[in-house]
Each structure stands twice: as C-alpha cells, then as structure tokens.
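hiii so um. not sure if this is the right channel but i have a protein structure encoded as tokens and i wanna go backwards to a sequence. like what aa goes where. can anyone help
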C-alpha cells in the first residue's frame, strides 16, 4: 500500500483519451465533473433519487436493462470509460457496463461484496476479525413478529441501503418492531431500491449468501469517534488519499459535519489503510476508488469497520481538494480510463488549512427553516466566495419518511474552508446566521491536532497487491 503525497502546488491534469460516461451525476459530482469538462469531456445518464419528477423513474427502473441500453449507445456516443460515485445504483451499474465493454472498472463481484453488508461482515470476520463488530442477520422479515430472545441495545441497518437509511440503535423489542413496520407505499419503495441489487447478487455472489432483503444486527459502539478513509486501488495496489472525521449531532447517529484534517494520528491512519487493504484483497477489489467508514476508540486503540463503499465519497472529495490540493474527482476520471490517478489529482492549489461539509438537520418536532431566497444565496456567494451550498427542503410524505427512515430531515449542506479550525467555525456561524439556518455548537469540539502543514494524508506503508 502507498500514500499520496499531499504537498502543494500541483502539476496540471492530463488530457482524457476519450469521452467518459458519468452515471447518476448530481450534487457534488455534477459540479465537480462540470469543472473538469475541458480536460475530461463527459456525458451523463441516470436520475436523481431525491428530486421530483426525476425520482418517478424508480417505478420502472431496471438496472440490467439500463446497462444494456448504455452498452448499445457506447460506440455511437464515443464513450471509452464509465464512472459513478452513486451508492444506490451507480457504482454497480458502472461496474456492469465496464465489464460488458471491456473498459477498466471495479470488478462487479467486488462491488457486490462491499454493498451486501452482511456478506462484507462475513468476509471481514475471516480476514481481519479484530476490526469487525459482533453481528448477525435479523431472523425476521419486514412486518413479521420480532425475535423475543435478542439482547438490547442493538444497532440495526438494512443489508443493502445507502445514506444511513433505517440505520439506528434500538433499545427494546418494541422499538425494533416499530422500526420494521411499513405501509404499502414504503414497502414498494424498499423493494424497488433493493431488488435490482439482490437479483444480481444472487447470480454473482457465492452460494449461501443470504438475500439482501433483510436487516443486519450489530453491537452498538458508543465510546468511539467516527471517520472515513478514502483511497483507490490501481494495478492491484492500495493507495490512501486521506481521512475525514465525522461528527454527529449530540446523542444521535446523524452527521452534523465532516471535517478535514483528521485528528487521527498518521499511525492510526496507516492501520486503517492496512485493514482496508486486507479486506479489498479478499474480495478481489483490484481497481477503483473506495471509502471505508470506521470507529476509533482512543482508550483501547481499536479500529472497528462500519462499512465499505466501492466508490469515491464525493461529498468528502471537496475537502481534500481545499486542504490538500488533491482533486479526487479528476483522479476517478483518470482511473476510469485505466490511468494512474495520482498525476490527475495533482492540479489544484490548496486554499484552506481546514475545511468541513456542514449538514443542517431538523429532528421531529423542530422548526424547519425555509430554503434560502435568491437574495440570500447571492449574499452568501458574495461574502463566502469559496462556499458551496445545497438546499433540499421536503414536505408532506417525503418529510415524514425522512423522520422515520433517517431519524431527521436533512434540509441543507454547506461546504466552507478556513485558515484553521477557529476561522472555519467562525465563518460557519456567520454563514448560518446569514441563511437563517441554526448552527450547531462547535466550540465544545477540540481543535484538530496542531502541527506543520506537512502531508496529512496517509504516509507510505508497505505495498500490498490485491
């Protein structure tokens, strides 16, 4: 395994060899790929699961038919590569299309192994048990009576899901029962989200791997911090980009912000990268970007894996670009064309000593601020020219589903940089006040570990071939 040097400035990105097809391209990805269009021309396909009327396409979406249609268009559209950082459908669709066309891509079976959370736990137990959590499948289907012999609390999550949907700690059989009771419309949505994956998983994963239509039980982790390791595999070698810290709203599992640089020491980051390498090797993940979510217990030093995502965490990529000058989106385009991502990532000057993706949420019963007016957005752009803003208010059944499935309603995301942590949080408070969005109390959070601006991404460690 290797780390990526994060010093500034960078050389320019190379020119693409052909057009890239970007699947399920919206939010962070849409802006990043548009910025890179001159060097890496691309086309887009897919739809936004969270925006009306785009998400109506879920009603007739068939993943394999979708890939078949793209394969028929590929030569006419001059596509020579495909990339997607979309967890629900995009990563698997990109892997299937790359396999069909003979393009560089993440192996389909490796994508399935990451996204089938129960199977991933079983693999991790074989190759790195010290980084695994006690787990078991929930022996009941949605709507069935829940087992009576379970010990609580338990952390419950779907075997196949994204965006922390239906993932939370339950403290009793009654809470577990309430969590797994759905109306007809909700069950229809769940089936439409899971079945495209499950159909392919049944064909491709080893015999005996359970259906993805179910829930996974894990032991809750309380006294630990949460983090994201981002990296890629090129020519069978695992490379780390960096680590981002995840900070929750107090007393919840809901993200309040993602912050870079990480407070974790380089030694802990290298250990996390080693764990990732062992898992990726075991599932045959020999090409592509990945993201590993994990807990770190400072008292015991233990690292426990939450899950693996077989794609770039695009929400976090902007933070590496601001602080380390590493453009991971450019790297993902290069890798999709079979090129070494490292030269493509080196091209962006560092603009901040600290950066964060702030997530604005309301919990049930709390006030939900309206979306910023056009005048507010213009003022935000003028006062915070480096800022990035996304408003996503919901109402009606969509809002009610957020509270049930996620435990909160995410109505906005804001990215900012700062000279250091103190400057970052001061700008965050001022920007929040401008938008009328309540800000979290960040003063109680310890400042990042002090030190020189030297590489804060992963230091080189012995290489491991996958």
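sure thing!! here u go:
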């Amino acid at each position: 395994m290797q780390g990526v040097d994060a010093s500034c400035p960078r050389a320019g990105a190379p020119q693409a060899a052909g057009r890239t097809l970007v699947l399920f391209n919206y939010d962070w990805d849409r802006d990043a790929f548009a910025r890179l269009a001159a060097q890496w021309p691309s086309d887009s396909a897919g739809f936004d699961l969270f925006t009306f009327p785009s998400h109506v396409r879920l009603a007739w979406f068939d993943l394999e038919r979708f890939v078949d249609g793209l394969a028929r268009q590929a030569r006419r559209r001059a596509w020579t590569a495909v990339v997607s950082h979309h967890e629900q459908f995009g990563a698997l669709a990109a892997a299937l299309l790359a396999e069909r066309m003979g393009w560089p891509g993440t192996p389909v079976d490796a994508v399935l192994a990451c996204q089938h959370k129960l199977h991933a736990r079983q693999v991790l137990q074989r190759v790195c048990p010290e980084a695994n959590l006690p787990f078991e499948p929930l022996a009941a289907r949605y709507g069935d009576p829940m087992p009576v012999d379970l010990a609580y609390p338990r952390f419950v999550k779907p075997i196949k899901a994204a965006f922390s949907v239906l993932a939370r700690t339950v403290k009793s059989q009654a809470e577990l029962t309430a969590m797994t009771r759905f109306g007809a419309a909700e069950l229809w949505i769940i089936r439409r989200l899971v079945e495209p994956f499950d159909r392919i998983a049944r064909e491709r994963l080893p015999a005996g791997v359970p259906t993805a239509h179910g829930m996974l039980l894990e032991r809750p982790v309380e006294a630990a911090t949460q983090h994201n390791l981002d990296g890629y595999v090129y020519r069978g070698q695992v490379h780390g980009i960096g680590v981002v810290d995840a900070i929750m709203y107090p007393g919840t599992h809901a993200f309040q912000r993602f912050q870079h640089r990480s407070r974790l020491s380089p030694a802990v980051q290298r250990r996390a990268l080693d764990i990732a390498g062992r898992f990726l090797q075991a599932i045959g993940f020999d090409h592509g970007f990945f993201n590993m979510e994990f807990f770190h217990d400072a008292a015991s030093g233990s690292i426990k894996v939450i899950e693996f995502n077989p794609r770039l965490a695009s929400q976090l990529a902007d933070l590496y670009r601001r602080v380390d000058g590493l453009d991971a989106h450019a790297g993902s385009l290069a890798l999709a064309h079979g090129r070494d991502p490292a030269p493509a990532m080196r091209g962006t000057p560092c603009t901040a000593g600290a950066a964060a993706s702030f997530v604005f949420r309301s919990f049930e019963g709390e006030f939900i601020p309206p979306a910023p007016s056009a005048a507010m957005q213009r003022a935000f752009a003028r006062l915070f020219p480096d800022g990035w803003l996304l408003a996503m208010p919901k109402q009606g059944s969509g809002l009610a589903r957020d509270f049930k499935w996620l435990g909160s309603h995410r109505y906005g995301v804001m990215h900012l940089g700062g000279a250091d942590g103190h400057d970052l949080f001061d700008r965050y408070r001022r920007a929040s006040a401008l938008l009328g969005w309540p800000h979290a109390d960040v003063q109680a959070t310890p400042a990042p570990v002090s030190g020189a601006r030297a590489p804060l991404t992963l230091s080189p460690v012995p290489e491991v071939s996958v």
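oh and Residues 113 and 385 are 41 Å apart (CA to CA).
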